[in-house]
Amino acid sequence: MTTDPLVIFTPSGKRGRVPRGTPVLAAARQLGVDLDSVCGGRGICSRCQITPGVGQFPKHGLTVAPDSLSDWNAVEERYKSIRGLIDGRRLGCQAKIEGDVVIDVPPESQVHKQVIRKRAEVRDITLAPAIRKVLVDVAEPDMHDPSGDFERLCDALAEQWDIPRPEAALPVLGELQPALRKGKWQVTCILHSDHRDRPPTLLSVTPGFDEDPLYGLAVDLGSTTIAAHLCNLDTGEVVASSGLMNPQIRFGEDLMSRVSYAMMNPGGAAEMTAAVREGLGQLVTEIAAEAGIGTDRIRDAVFVANPVMHHLLLGIDPVELGQAPFALATSGALSLAARDLDLPLLPDTPLYILPCIAGHVGADAAAVALSEAPQESEDLVLIVDVGTNAELLLGDRTEVLACSSPTGPAFEGAQISAGQRAAPGAIERVEIDPDTGTPRFRVIGSDLWSDADGFDTSVLASGITGICGSGIIEAIAEMRRAGLVDAGGLIGSAEQTGCDRIITEGRTHAYVLHDGRADGGPLITVTQGDVRAIQLAKSALYAGARLLMDRRGVDHVDRVVLAGAFGAHISPRHALILGMIPDCPEEKVTSAGNAAGTGARIALLNTAARSEIEALVTRIRKIETAIEPKFQAHFVAANHIPHAEDGFEGLRASVPLPEPRFNQRDEAEGKTRRRRRRGAAGAPEGAG
Amino acid sequence: MTTDPLVIFTPSGKRGRVPRGTPVLAAARQLGVDLDSVCGGRGICSRCQITPGVGQFPKHGLTVAPDSLSDWNAVEERYKSIRGLIDGRRLGCQAKIEGDVVIDVPPESQVHKQVIRKRAEVRDITLAPAIRKVLVDVAEPDMHDPSGDFERLCDALAEQWDIPRPEAALPVLGELQPALRKGKWQVTCILHSDHRDRPPTLLSVTPGFDEDPLYGLAVDLGSTTIAAHLCNLDTGEVVASSGLMNPQIRFGEDLMSRVSYAMMNPGGAAEMTAAVREGLGQLVTEIAAEAGIGTDRIRDAVFVANPVMHHLLLGIDPVELGQAPFALATSGALSLAARDLDLPLLPDTPLYILPCIAGHVGADAAAVALSEAPQESEDLVLIVDVGTNAELLLGDRTEVLACSSPTGPAFEGAQISAGQRAAPGAIERVEIDPDTGTPRFRVIGSDLWSDADGFDTSVLASGITGICGSGIIEAIAEMRRAGLVDAGGLIGSAEQTGCDRIITEGRTHAYVLHDGRADGGPLITVTQGDVRAIQLAKSALYAGARLLMDRRGVDHVDRVVLAGAFGAHISPRHALILGMIPDCPEEKVTSAGNAAGTGARIALLNTAARSEIEALVTRIRKIETAIEPKFQAHFVAANHIPHAEDGFEGLRASVPLPEPRFNQRDEAEGKTRRRRRRGAAGAPEGAG
Fold it and tell me: What domains lie within chain A, and their CATH numbers?
């Protein structure tokens, strides 16, 4: 009796002996190697491609003979001649093991392949979507043993794929009989099976083998912008990204004004629900067109949103979110269908909505947590999703805490005299020479600093039209560093500062960042009011962070992650000078980009991540800033730049900050004026 | 230490000691006594009414003192003064046990009460519907421990009612917050939880206590008639019944002609689906109006139908059911929502469709099995659901077999020269004097026999217009008994029979049942063609029964149950004379009425019955008559009246049958003519 051949799979290293003549795919299954197949070994889908090694493998103590795999059979030859195969590749379902062999499974042949994320500090995503496509051969009906076609399909799924009996909606049952007969009893099934312990759903049955990929949609529904990523569910790849202004803006710029609209106008909530669903519909259509696919190929979707948008999307009146105690209608994750939200997808397309964390900390914050995984962090991380309402997460392996802080819209350029959205023409970066008080800046749409040759030409098209959120933060931080603004936030006069770019506006001063009036452009200044607006916003943000730190019993954090599209553009140094975030080494302040969108994508591509975030949100300690007595004290102390009490020694060691004091009387007055106003006039506290 | 009082509940006999001061409801729960409550002990719903006994209970060895229950408290007094209470009754949630007591739980206070069925031989139904109504107090939101209103409602359901976390559709989540606040955190929840192992569904949340009962609908969707029963889900009582002609009749009278319509006309199946759903919608509206309730109080529905109607209802093209191998799209039970069938109920109202048994043996036959429970029969029972297509079940505790037999429409009066539907004016009962050959008959709409005084007046309004199905069966059986028809089915001439009511029609003879021509009415005869048509139908029925008996290895059955509305009108004796059913003592032939409708009602009122029938249909042995070689032989042998081979000795012992032979030559010819034609010309075999 000869020994069975030894087969070693790489990169897994799994090995074992299998009877001569065993197909590679069968050997892989036997040994628990992750090798994909959609057609179940029929040589149609080519998902089981492998690369056999030949020659010496000293590491494995093995010499692989050229005939260790069977010759190409007709099926494999046919596949190669029609569809092509990369040199050296074989179809794992056709090639049989005839001798000792080392077989490499390339990444794209693994079911649970890794979707590589660009940032080093976060985990890659393991591909394990809710949607699965399989080819099955169904037994023909037999009058001697009558059973339904659907029941025989279920038997085939169980036998050929070990899939438990699925449920099927009526339209699928209606298409079943023609599909089976047209496909000569061979059909492609698309099944949905998420993280919940329940039977899978059969979403469609089509005749023969359906080779086209399926797609999923990850949507971050923001107050201002709706962002969507279309992902190939076979590869995890983002094939198209698209954004849209939230059409609800016509009902109010910020969340509180939308809640007010719902309160004041009967049917207002329904109107806003219709608007956002219509916008989503448009986005779905656009993104499918961009990717060149039909919307019927999109078979799964995940949504994240802040609580107000979450409720409006679901058709729930958000009125309770506008008043204490800020009760969500539901905080749990939701599994819905496209039909429920009137989306232009196939009506039974599953939708998954991430859970909310609390009344002010929504599914978008949950998605940030999923992306940044504070609960797995070795060091203590503060994650700040900066927007009109900032959500903060503080935690490590021990515990994660969350709160929201009503920063208001100043960080987004609103309530700033020369403020504007981040669009071409907006000043986004600022540097001020501490000796002369002379600024230089960069404008969105140009790569050049304003003192570089060719700058004027480069901004001809856009002009220089205003300052965006990141620009105003840098401008004020630089003014502070240059001694033009004191710790109390007061802009000194030209005399006090010796800077001729300071002009007088009534009883206060303003700093001229750019004077375009000679060319018919605007005079762009940073006014005392602008500084006060940013102080309010940054104090709220910092106070929220401090509240979490208090609860955790710490007075510093190891690192800070800035999330949100806006967070990606904030310079860590300037955020520190301004005292937006707790003192922390500059290199420990990183940007996570649109972490909420990434979290949505993770939940789309990996169903285990859905269980993970559902479990995590229940474990996160929620802090409601609106009822924390210490919030007010933290807020007042954070009004100073960078801070009245916290030393920011780390920052000061690398960035010297001068300490002028421009006017005692004026400062006292300033303190009165900056008494906490949370949210807009008349709007309840705590949301926004 | 004094002994705790002893409490004995009747009729259950459950007993135990409970601490003094325990409310009767709490004591019942502790001792496992079935005592209802919807409001959870708040003295609102009065579902926990009990009757305390006072005095000597020698059987229990107990003397009950008048003060064995606490005095009436304010809640109980208030309830009695406003809503009234039957004398002697107390509210179990308010009355506290203060001494040894015997407490009677009246039937209407039991959750799982028995719904009494009229027939002695069948089980009563234990009330255990899928719909449940409970009152809960929900915790108010707490900013210190934020959670969604829905999550707190779920906690309340778990704590107060031990109900696992339900799922809720978006409209329910949308109505949740206003309902909780309007009801001051007390709401009535309607939940659906059927026999499947999955979370319950929250169907609605309304402020405060909703005292109005909920209803369920049991629908038997037949080819000709749609019959619906509206049941009170608290009592099991049928509060309204309504029927409607199936609007699909315009596409074809019988099932095969509807399948043909779907085959020949693109979109024909969808047209018929729309028609039947529209008809159902009308029925739903009518039955609710008849009961004086809103359709929104109907929160559950169960449907049974034959396979073709089943598919058309679901929107599945029935074309495969019109040709071998008669494959159902699905045979399993289905859980749907009203929305799926476009019914004018609340969109999320659950619908349950019973499983089909085989391609010709539908959910209606499954419902008959549920009602008649052959699998629990001690003796061997043959259940025949007589219709255009007859379904047969044969079985006992050992095994149940099923088949269908294409009887054609003759039993329903179609293909009969003077045939008509069972409607006023139709002859439904016939007797022929064996000596004189003179008939007397009864007509639908009159209680009198035709030879009684006042008969003519009683039928003035309707006239005497034709013969219905039961009438033609009795007429031919009586003709056979009177020696006017021989065993081969040939009508003798007036000379051969000595009966002057026999007339000649070409080469054959006909029997004049009624001659109304003098008054402008019709001449109603039983022709040779009529006898042949009934022979075909009864031979098919008998052959099906024989096939089942062969498989079971028996040559007689212990009893026969005739099901179907038509079955209820067949006279057992005449069915036996005709040889429709196997020989059997006349008193062992009973009618089950609309057993399919009853089965639907059972599945509506008791979810365990759903599991039961789903399990049973997989165990039933299905016999496909179309491919059984012996069917043809059985069919030919059954052509004789009552039978060529089977002796019918039991019948003959009580009903002497003369044995004339009218014409050798003609009989041979008849044999040729009665060669098996299954279904209508051009239509495939096996269905109808």
Answer: 6-109 (3.10.20.30), 115-207 (3.10.20.880), 216-352 (3.30.420.480), 368-408+533-673 (no CATH), 419-525 (no CATH)
